[in-house]
Amino acid sequence: MAFEPVFEMTKPESLRRLCSSQAVVEAKLLPSSGATIARVLSIATDCTVSPSEVFAGEARYNGRVCFKVVFADSEGGNHSMDYNADFTDKLSCEQIVAGIRPVISASILDTDVVGVDEREIKLACVVEVNLDAVMGNGVNLLTGGGENIYTHDDKIEYTRLVCDGTDSFAVSDSMTDVKCKDILLAEPRIILSSVRAGLDSVVVDGKIICDLCCEGDDGLIMSYRQTTGFMQEISCSGVRDDNFAIGRASLTTYKAVLETSGEQSAITFDYGVSVSVQAFADESVNAIVDAFSVQNELLTAGESFAVYRNRLFQTFSDRVDGSVTLDINMPIADNVLAVTGSKLNVANATASDGKITFEGVASCNVIYYSAEADTNSSVAVELPFSFSTTAKVGEGDEITANGTITSVVAKIRRGNEIDIKAEIEIETLATSVDTEYVITELKLGEERALPTSAFSIHIARGGETLWDVAKSLGTTPELVLTQNPSLSLPLCGGERVIAYRNLK
User: Fold this and answer.
1) Which SS3 state, helix, strand or coil, does residue 256 take?
2) Is residue 363 located within the same domain as residue 491?
3) Are 274 and 397 in contact, with CB atoms under 8 Å apart?
4) Range of the domain at 465
5) Strand, coil or helix: what is 438?
6) Which CATH number belongs to the domain containing residue 487 in this structure?
7) Residue range 226-273, pLDDT digits in tens
8) CA dihedral 186, 274, 276, 432 (to 10 degrees)
């Protein structure tokens, strides 16, 4: 065999978070039917985004924030109003390239009251928009050198995208035997419980939690919560059950309708769900990282590149406990009526060996009744949290996390203090990052000048291999073993290895 280097194009691929940005969206809400705003009881927001155009270094998107307010008028009546604010913006990042299929998600970080009077309320919210995409850079690496070329290789493990798909579907549910006359506020949230690969498909399991703030026949506020589970099989050609699957779900539409027939009332729920999935297969290649020839000098060039591997996609659950103390000028609480505006912001997620630590804030709004003042009032709650959970991750893994509150229970401990217990779930993607060096170019140089000495001696260092010794002595690994029959492998360091030039 002649000098015939063999190269192989390898393209590691993984789903990664490329960039994030924030946008401020404002709205002005006006009561209908001539109602006046006396007290604001609840402010809730939700957001949807979708990509519009992708250029090199830039991804544009369209978004919509729905502002929803529950308020009491001067006579104690309960009202609600909402407003959809459309906005457009862009994400900028050097890693964005034309042709990628971005997965854009959004969450509301904060909502502020800019101004309020009896005729209008002005709101502003901060939206965090994230762009994820499957990325991979092809590397043409050396896998074989040819005759009389002695090489040293490393096994590079990576993942390859098998399928990238989306699906949209409808989910419906109903709640019977409800005791209300009007729905003031509906707040749905979606979370995936599991994503698993099958034969030519990816199966997602999840649930939609919808909190309802309603008004009863007596004019009092009451609340309901409905949890709707769903399972969807998404067609993905080429997927096998041992592939690694990732999913992202969002609500595109939702509707909660109160239906009354005689003395019976029910609420029907209709949701539009969009799910994006990716499936990856494990691959490996033995890439040459060093080479030498006994007869010729070798001219090599190489490069280092990052190998990202999605290693975990899992939903973790925990509970956040805390309390809120009412301000001295607020009415004393006698009865909790509803919990609205439930929101979970994961501010930080870090991986150590076998553990992930999450930090963030769980927030909600508690509407309560005060008998002394004979009014409905509300208080905002923020509960910082930090917890760790065991997971199959390594030190330095990149973690992206998206969470939601699945259940909140508020109880009055005393008149001016309310205890809160919130069940939370966090979708988590862990990605490992390794830097690999490989030879990408190999050429045959001039003939090597052979040593004129009768023999050469090499003193082995700790960690050296037989290949390292042969390269240092300018001979073949086979001759090293033949001429040093007592050599014990692996080398410990300090061994005297001899290469004979004129062996008689």
Assistant:
1) strand
2) no
3) no
4) 450-500
5) strand
6) 3.10.350.10
7) 999 999 999 999 999 999 999 999 999 999 999 987 778 899 999 999
8) 0
What is the per-residue pLDDT for 474? 85
pLDDT of 405 over the 80 cut:
yes
14 vs 244: CA distance, rounded Å:
10
Running DSSP on this structure, what letter comes out for residue 468? H
Nearest-angstrom CA–CA distance, 355 and 359? 13
d(CA 382, CA 138): 46
Question: Are 123 and 76 members of one domain?
Answer: yes
Q: For tokens 């509906």, what's the residue? A: 186
Query: In this predicted model, which residue has the larger pLDDT, 206 or 149?
Result: 206
Which long-range contacts link 470-478 to residues 24+ away (Cβ below 8 Å)? 470/150, 470/292, 471/150, 471/290, 471/292, 473/497, 473/499, 474/294, 474/448, 474/450, 474/499, 475/294, 475/499, 476/150, 476/294, 477/150
The tokens for 484 are 């040093």
Using CA atoms, how far apart are residues 271 and 105, in angstroms rounded to an integer? 18
Q: Are residues 354 and 235 in the same domain?
A: yes
Q: What is the dihedral of CA 299, 437, 246, 193, to 10 degrees?
A: 170
Q: Which residue has the higher pLDDT, 230 or 462?
A: 230
Same domain flag for 343 and 492: no
Q: How many of the other CB atoms lie within 10 Å of CB of 441?
A: 13
Q: Are residues 259 and 334 in the same domain?
A: yes
Indicate the residue type of 287. A
Q: Are residues 227 and 332 in the same domain?
A: yes
- pTM for the complete prediction? 0.88
What is the largest distance, in Å, between two alpha-carbon atoms of the chain?
114
Residue 8: both structure tokens together = 């192989």
Taking alpha carbons only, the member of 340, 375, 378, 341 closest to residue 77 is: 375
Torsion of CA 171, 175, 176, 179, to 10 degrees: -150
Provide the pLDDT confidence category of residue 195 given band limits of 50, 70 and 90.
very high
Number of H helices, E strands in the chain: 2, 22
Q: How many domains does the chain have?
A: 2
Phi and psi torsions of 450, nearest 5°: -70, 145
Can you say how many angstroms the Cα of residue 441 is from the centroid of all Cα atoms in its chain? 37
Minimal CA–CA distance to 67: which of 89, 52, 82, 51?
A: 82
Assess whether 477 and 401 both reside in one domain.
no
